[in-house]
């Protein structure tokens, strides 16, 4: 029998490593599923005890405090009053256990339980599952008000539909939102910076940038060179969208968008459609990201142009959540009023 070669040995190491990683992943998933199930049951026990009237008025006020004290003596610090409150809330919001996803960890659910609005919570549950967000990614999307920013530019039916969709992007128009938030760049609002510096900062934080853009984006390149009649042009950022099956071209502007910026993006889109697309690709999408946006100029400058060309705003700080909520509530009330007339 011949001696194993170095190559055979390396294959053995790879097989063992792969088996260990897969087993570790399955074990972590099993542990997470077990924790979610256990905490749901604990919440069920508490709620059923309360509903059966076994907690007198005086004792009922102290129920969680008493449980916390006694269970800590048996099992340790995992039974704080705040944790018991979460278990109880988790059960109340998911009394049909069949609706509880085992693909979300308890840490995911802790973040989701902080959302009081049912439609908003449903939206984040579905998007976390669809995009396979980590807990950190879920926190970032919540903190940046993703649901509120998307809903702010929708009508009532579309706002409600957001909570029931399994993917953020199904058609070109879905890449639009009220604004993009680049707070992860840590660029002070008052600081002067160039478009190239903004582009470089986004590329250094590509993971967060892709998360902000949404599901399905893959990075192709920056300063993507195209040549027309011996004249060279460069698209700031080029992506490919796996769901829409098309290139997404992004140009960055640190000031107001001018009409010639829109014409230039339209030219880029025409070039990619003719020269870069292959069989099966859909027409490209063009996005001009600017700090400010003159709505009237954009409306006139894009008149008759490709409907896949968008001018969107970006901001360097987190949006005012309460202001967005008021805007959405006003939209719902206004459309409800118009419906009643």
TrEMBL record:
It comes from the Bacteria. Gene3D superfamilies: 3.40.1350.10. InterPro entries: PD-DEXK-like_domain, tRNA_endonuc-like_dom_sf, YhcG_C, YhcG_N. Residues 175-328 form the YhcG PDDEXK nuclease domain. Transmembrane segments: none annotated. Pfam families: DUF1016_N, YhcG_C. Residues 16-149 form the YhcG N-terminal domain. This is DUF1016 domain-containing protein. It comes from Oceanisphaera marina.
């Amino acid at each position: 029998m011949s001696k194993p070669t170095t190559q055979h040995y390396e294959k053995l190491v790879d097989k063992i490593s792969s088996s260990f990683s897969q087993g570790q992943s399955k074990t972590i998933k099993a542990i997470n599923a077990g924790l979610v199930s256990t905490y749901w049951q604990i919440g069920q026990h508490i709620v059923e005890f309360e509903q059966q009237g076994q907690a007198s008025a005086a004792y009922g006020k102290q129920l969680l405090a008493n449980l916390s004290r006694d269970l800590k003596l048996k099992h340790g610090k995992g039974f704080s009053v705040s944790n018991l409150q979460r278990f109880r809330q988790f059960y109340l919001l998911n009394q049909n256990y069949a609706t509880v996803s085992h693909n979300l960890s308890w840490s995911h659910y802790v973040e989701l339980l902080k959302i009081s609005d049912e439609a908003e919570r449903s939206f984040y549950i579905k998007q976390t599952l669809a995009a396979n967000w980590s807990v950190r990614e879920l926190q970032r999307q919540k903190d940046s008000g993703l649901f509120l920013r998307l809903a702010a530019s929708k009508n009532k039916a579309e706002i409600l539909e957001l909570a029931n969709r399994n993917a953020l992007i199904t058609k070109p128009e879905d890449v639009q939102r009220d604004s993009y938030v680049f707070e992860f760049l840590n660029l002070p609002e008052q600081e002067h910076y160039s478009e190239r510096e903004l582009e470089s900062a986004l590329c250094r934080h590509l993971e967060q940038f892709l998360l902000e853009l949404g599901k399905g984006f893959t990075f192709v390149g920056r300063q993507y060179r195209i040549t027309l009649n011996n004249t060279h042009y460069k698209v700031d950022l080029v992506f490919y969208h796996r769901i829409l099956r098309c290139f997404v071209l992004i140009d960055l502007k640190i000031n107001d968008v001018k009409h010639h910026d829109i014409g230039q993006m339209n030219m880029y889109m025409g070039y990619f459609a003719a020269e870069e697309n292959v069989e099966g690709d859909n027409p490209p999408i063009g996005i001009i990201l600017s700090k400010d946006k003159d709505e009237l100029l954009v409306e006139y400058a894009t008149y008759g142009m490709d409907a896949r060309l968008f001018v969107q705003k970006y901001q360097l700080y987190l949006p005012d959540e309460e202001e967005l909520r008021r805007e959405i509530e006003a939209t719902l009330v206004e459309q409800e009023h118009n419906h009643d007339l």
